[in-house]
Amino acid sequence: MNQATISIPFAIGENLWHAAPDPDAQWEVCDTCFGTLKVTMVLGNGEKHVLNCAACRLGYGQPSGRIQTHRYRYTPKEFIPTNVSMSGDEFHYSRDESGQFAYATTLTRDRAECQVMCDEMNAKHAAEEHGRCVANRTSKRRDMVWAVGYWRGQLRKAEADVARLREHLGIVIEHKKSKP
Ligand SMILES: [Zn+2]
Fold first, then answer.
1. FRET label pair with 170: which of 50, 76, 110, 154, CA 20 to 30 Å apart?
2. Which helix (H) or strand (E) holds 22?
3. Alpha carbon distances (Å) from 152 to 69, 140, 149
4. CA of 61 to the centre of ligand 1 (A)
5. 10 in a structural domain
6. What is the pTM of this model?
7. Residue 142 belongs to some domain of the structure
């Protein structure tokens, strides 16, 4: 009977550090409304419009006051594996109680070393994310300006309609009055 021995990079139950995605660090206070959820737009004629902030709105919902500045953000997290598995030449470790999962390549015994791994991964995504963030904010701010222009136009049109209808009604009333 043939037997093969594979050595695993870390032991079960060992105290490790994981360069882990951190969902909390992916969000920051909205830099358009600064968390107030409202934006005041002042037009050239001094007319003010208070709008729901579109920059921190998710989909078509209400503004949240926070924006996702990073899709990827890694911070060192303590990791004590309870399971190890192998697929191809990669080792995966997991923790029963939390369901957390880590590739061996993102684990280390040293916290400082883990921080370096996190910094490298964060830097790798930073430039691309900055561009995405700016483009996203610019487009959402443009939407707000567009919305004010659009709704002002609709209001002017409605006011013109009301004036026209009043005038029309006035004529009808005049007609009734003039009848014997
Ligand atoms: Zn906002």
1. 154
2. none
3. 32, 18, 5
4. 12
5. no
6. 0.58
7. yes
